[in-house]
Write a structure and sequence with these properties.
The complex is a heterodimer of chains A (about 325) and B (about 240).
Chain A (H helix, E strand, L loop, with lengths): L1 E5 L1 E2 L2 E2 L1 H17 L3 E6 L4 H5 L8 E5 L9 H15 L3 E5 L2 H14 L2 E6 L10 E6 L4 E7 L4 E5 L14 E4 L12 E7 L11 E5 L10 H10 L2 E4 L1 H5 L20 E5 L5 H7 L4 E6 L12 E4 L2 H14 L2
Parallel strand pairs in A: 1-4, 1-6, 4-5, 5-11, 6-10, 7-10, 13-14, 13-15, 15-16, 16-17
Antiparallel strand pairs in A: 2-3, 8-9
Helix pairs in contact in A: 3-4, 5-8
Chain B lengths: L1 E5 L2 E3 L7 E2 L4 E2 L6 E3 L1 H17 L2 E7 L5 H10 L3 E5 L6 H15 L3 E5 L10 H9 L3 E11 L2 E8 L2 E8 L2 E5 L11 H7 L4 E4 L7 E7 L8 E2 L7 H8 L5
Parallel strand pairs in B: 1-6, 1-8, 6-7, 7-13, 8-12, 9-12
Antiparallel strand pairs in B: 2-5, 3-4, 9-10, 10-11
The chains are: A alpha/beta (about 325), B alpha/beta (about 240).
The structure holds flavin-adenine dinucleotide.
Flavin-adenine dinucleotide binds next to helix 6, helix 7 and helix 8 of chain A.
Chain lengths: ~325, ~240
């Protein structure tokens, strides 16, 4: 059986986790078995049943009130226990820093092989091999995964799910929750509300030092709004506190692989490219025709962001 | 307080990556190695904690002898002694196993490392170590203070951050802005030469192995759109690239 660690946000399965379920169901097909989603936290049964549209036959739901807030240690304990109880040999998760924290501890408990940034379905012709993205997207490695239990963290956009009308059965589970899993006390949570999650986003508009200062961000926000895109930024921009740190993309920030990444006033340093180079389509707007980012781009506009951005926003709104 | 800082030795972030031996090995020719950028943040914060309230810092690397310049650099920045587990760090679980074995011996209050290495970017070693030691692990931690036996931290979460407290011992995966990278001074470099560096053998076996490497397909040419006709981009994204 293939088990998918499924993340929930606002009562529903996260989009990246639906991709992971679809990926898991494809692996299950290849291995002649079935896919089960493990959902932890409060969620609507009807929402959970949607896992069936993405190929899961069953959803195991741990809804204990203690699990209402994401807690990597408690979730890892539930994951490890579920792997043991179900005899799952392969665990799939959508790569995120939270999923990493969860799968890592589960791997420790299960002595499982764990590989991150998987970019394709496995090759089963000779053992169990996966292609992973390494050096933040600068290269790939074909990795043989040998452990009895294998944990795969997949990158966004590695499969294009085709929804079916199948639904999954939802079964409640009551895992053991030891007190020491709740040893940390969360004293404050600061979360941007009403914005589109950057790691989940299909469309991203990102700004660099060429945006001149936080007070000049409005044209970029307007384009993001018109497109329904998430916003991101380069490292100096978050270092200077022009934008919040969670928007920082690149080698030392969030790695994104959206369908569309629009870079505004970003030079395209190798460390920045490392976080965005697996985007399907890269658009670069920079007033310097020699900016290195153009070499990595699919579409480029040489021009002043403050003149170009409003034109793009207008065109998006006009085409709706 | 006893702090263990785990560092990886990785190609400089500006390195051009290529492979040799029929794409089975990383081409190290002309590649400069550095302390993993995230590990470097962890080290910098450890040195600050030592300066503030006293601590001993042991730096640990799982890797071959070619990582020693990076270990010496960590000693020059402010670690007191070093351990190198003499084996190629090829697999997350395997590396974590080595770290956990050293940690069990040393009874550390804090085990710090980067949130991920900049070669495989897996971000799981800290969690595996925490589980193996039976102590809490948190990542990515962007602020850390220690008061007696209590650590207060800020951790990044999707779309924001959260503040939390927990008792030592802890394993933490660190990222900016936990501290600013430190550059060793002359005195540090001199004293680093004589600080103890212990080399020990590895135990256990890797659960994964890399069979072959490859590079991404080269990008096609960038299609330029004149700024005066910027609105044409939206049309192209719809009809040609089909992403809108
Ligand atoms: C170890 C390490 C890790 C790093 N990690 C990251 C990382 O994760 N992410 C990251 O982003 N960086 C990272 N960096 C930093 C990176 O090297 C660059 O310094 C950074 O990406 C540059 O940011 P920028 O493009 O916003 O600014 P700049 O390089 O200053 O570029 C600004 C650009 O804006 C253009 N511009 C200016 N005005 C306008 C205008 N009016 N209209 C249009 N264009 C305009 C300029 O032509 C220029 O190309 C890292 C560096 C190191 C050493």
């Amino acid at each position: 059986m293939i088990l998918i660690f499924t993340e929930i946000a606002d009562g529903a399965i996260k989009k990246s986790s639906l991709e992971a379920i679809y990926y898991g169901s494809k692996v299950a097909e290849m291995m002649g078995t079935t896919a089960t989603a493990l959902a932890i936290g409060s969620a609507d049964a009807a929402e959970l049943a949607k896992a069936g549209n993405y190929g899961a036959t069953k959803v195991l739901h741990a809804a204990d009130a203690k699990l209402a807030n994401p807690n990597s240690m408690a979730y890892a304990s539930v994951l490890a226990e579920t792997v043991k109880n179900t005899g799952a040999k392969v665990v799939v998760a959508a790569k995120s820093s939270f999923a990493d924290a969860v799968t890592a501890r589960a791997a420790g408990a299960l002595k499982a092989a764990v590989v991150g940034n998987v970019t394709e379905l496995p090759n089963l012709s000779n053992g169990f091999q996966v292609k992973v993205s390494i050096f933040t997207g600068k290269a790939f490695a074909d990795v043989n995964v040998n452990g009895d239990v294998k944990i795969l963290a997949i990158k966004k956009n590695v499969v294009a799910p085709v929804e079916s009308s199948d639904s999954a059965s939802v079964e409640s589970i009551s895992p053991i929750l030891a007190d020491n899993l709740f040893a940390a006390k969360v004293t404050e949570t600061i979360k941007a509300t009403g914005t589109i999650s950057l790691p989940e986003a299909d469309l991203v508009v990102s700004g660099g030092r060429g945006m001149k200062g936080p007070e000049h961000w409005q044209p970029l926000l307007d384009l993001a709004d018109a497109l329904g895109a998430a916003t991101a930024c380069s490292k100096p921009v978050s270092d200077l506190d022009w934008r919040p740190h969670h928007e920082h993309v690149g080698q030392t920030g969030v790695k994104v692989s959206p369908n569309l990444y629009i870079a505004c006033g970003i030079s395209g340093a190798i460390q920045h490219l490392a976080g965005v180079n697996s985007s399907k389509v890269l658009v670069v707007i920079n007033k310097d025709p020699e900016a290195p980012f153009f070499k990595a781009a699919d579409y480029g506009i040489v021009g002043d962001v403050f003149e170009v951005l409003p034109k793009l926003t207008k065109a998006v709104l006009a085409s709706k | 307080m006893k702090i263990l800082v785990c560092i990886s030795s990785v190609p400089d972030t500006t390195s051009k990556i290529s492979f040799t031996d029929g794409d089975t090995k990383l081409n190290k020719a002309g590649v400069t190695y550095i302390i993993g950028p995230y590990d470097d943040y962890a080290l910098a914060r450890a040195v600050e904690l030592k300066e503030q309230s006293g601590a001993t810092i042991t730096v640990l690397n799982v890797g071959g002898a070619d990582a020693e310049p990076q270990i010496r650099k960590a000693l020059a920045i402010g670690a007191d002694d070093a351990i190198r587990v003499d084996v190629e760090p090829t697999d997350s679980f395997f590396v974590a196993e080595q770290i956990a074995a050293v940690a069990k011996e040393g009874n550390y209050d804090l085990i710090l490392m980067g949130r991920e290495t900049s070669d495989y970017n897996s971000g799981v070693v800290h969690g595996i170590v925490g589980e193996m030691l039976g102590i809490p692990s948190f990542s990515p931690v962007m602020q850390l203070d220690v008061n007696g036996n209590e650590a207060s931290m800020t951790r990044e979460i999707e779309g924001g951050k959260e503040k939390l407290t927990a008792s030592l011992p802890l394993v933490l995966g660190c990222q900016e802005p936990i501290a600013e990278w430190k550059i060793p001074n002359m005195r540090g470099i001199m004293t680093a030469r004589t600080k103890p560096l212990k080399v020990i053998p590895a135990a256990g076996a890797a659960l994964t192995s890399t069979e072959k490497y490859s590079l991404p397909a080269p990008k096609g040419a960038c299609k330029m759109i004149p700024a005066e006709e910027a609105e044409k981009l939206i049309e192209l994204l719809k009809t040609e690239a089909k992403v809108l």
